[in-house]
């Protein structure tokens, strides 16, 4: 009995260590505001006038953050640099749980997805068809979806096609960021 408890404790410790290692060795790089703006301009050719930086105070249900929004063809890019990393993690956890409930527990999704949730980072990438999906916001309720949500530290990044348009461009944006993709 005592040996079984030791084995279980060791296994749980290993799982936690692997989860931590997955984030620290993953390709989810945390950017800051200036490096993100530079990346959007240099790698994707988005003009400075099409990149909008604003501040949110956290009163509308989202964490207080510096927010960057941009469009790349029919792709919507939103990056929030949260004032509090714990709030960023909580926001990602809520989205991750919604993804698990919506995509992994029903058979209405056809396509591919990858996801990972670690201690201080994670991601969800979805490409395929699912009726009435709202995983990346109401703008994606068409059924065809290609989008991604990444979290690392205080950064939360959304990339998604608008109304099923520009599906090929989502991959271009993800690749430019150097993040995991389906």
What is the oligomeric state here?
A: single chain
- What count of structural domains? 1
SSE-based structural type: alpha+beta
How would you state the average pLDDT, rounded? 79
> How many helices in DSSP terms?
4
Shape: globular
CA-atom Rg in angstroms = 18 Å
Question: How far apart are the termini?
Answer: 43 Å
User: How are helices and strands ordered from N to C?
Assistant: HHEEEHEEEEH
- Walk across the major sheet and give the strand order: 1-2-3-7-6-5-4
Explain the overall architecture.
The protein has 182 residues and is of the alpha+beta class. The chain has one domain. Helices cover 35% and strands 30% of the residues. It has helices spanning 2-24, 33-42, 85-104, 167-177; strands at 51-56, 65-72, 75-82, 110-117, 121-129, 144-152, 155-161. A 7-stranded antiparallel sheet has the order 1-2-3-7-6-5-4, with helices on both faces. A hairpin with a 2-residue loop joins strand 6 and strand 7 (155-161). The chain is globular and about 40 Å long.
């Amino acid at each position: 009995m005592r040996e079984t408890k030791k084995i279980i404790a060791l296994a749980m410790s290993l799982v936690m260590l692997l989860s931590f290692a997955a984030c620290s060795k993953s390709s989810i790089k945390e950017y800051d505001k200036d490096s993100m703006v530079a990346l959007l301009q240099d790698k994707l050719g988005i003009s400075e006038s099409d990149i909008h930086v604003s501040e949110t105070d956290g009163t509308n249900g989202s964490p207080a953050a510096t927010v960057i929004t941009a469009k790349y063809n029919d792709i919507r890019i939103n990056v929030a640099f949260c004032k509090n990393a714990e709030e960023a993690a909580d926001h990602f956890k809520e989205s991750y749980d919604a993804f698990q409930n919506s995509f992994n527990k029903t058979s209405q999704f056809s396509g591919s997805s990858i996801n990972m949730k670690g201690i201080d980072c994670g991601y969800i990438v979805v490409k395929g068809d699912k009726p009435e999906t709202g995983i990346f916001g109401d703008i994606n309720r068409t059924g065809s979806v290609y989008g991604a949500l990444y979290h690392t530290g205080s950064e939360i990044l959304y990339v998604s096609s608008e109304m099923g348009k520009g599906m090929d461009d989502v991959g271009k944006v993800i690749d430019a960021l150097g993040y995991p993709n389906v």
